[in-house]
Amino acid sequence: MKTWVKKSIVIMVAFLTFGLITPTHEIWDAFDQGSSNRASIGSASGTGTAVAAETATSWEEESQIQEEVVDYNALLLDAAREQSYIKFGTKIGPKISHEFDNIIFPKIEEAIAMTVASLDEQSLASLTISEKPSGHYGEKIFNVINHATGTDVIRFHVRTEKRPLEGYYYNFHYHSAEDNFMAHHNLGDIYWNKNTPPKWLS
Question: Who contacts 136 (Cβ-Cβ below 8 Å, separation ≥6)?
Fold first, then answer.
């Protein structure tokens, strides 16, 4: 068979299947040996279809398994970290990131874990993290919200404090719905310096 015909067939198959199925070696063997073996092409392509069907079935099973195993706590923590760094901005974030990651964020993780520990799977799946931290000198970092009811479960804040003769500190704390957001649960402090810190989100 002429080379240009072989190449045309390969290009046609690749184009029609968007590159998902490539011609097998049995096809080339059948073309090289002549028309006497064309019956074997049909059985070979049927085998390829069966393998493709098995692959599609196993892919669907894997995707169903992956959908069932969702770590909602990890999703909340990832969103919490992201919103925290959005709040810090590019001026504050790089200067406090080490202390935040090593001291404050593990306590945030602990507070979230304690709160969601008593929730069932459905309630846990309905929890989200608010996406607009406050700017200027506002305290709000993020809230954990029950999306189904629209109510806050936990509110995480950071307050800029000026302490006489020491300088500025960032006080991280949270408020919980368990006590109607009245109590101030301290997570820790990070020292800035004696100069006035920049505004959040800057």
Answer: 199, 200
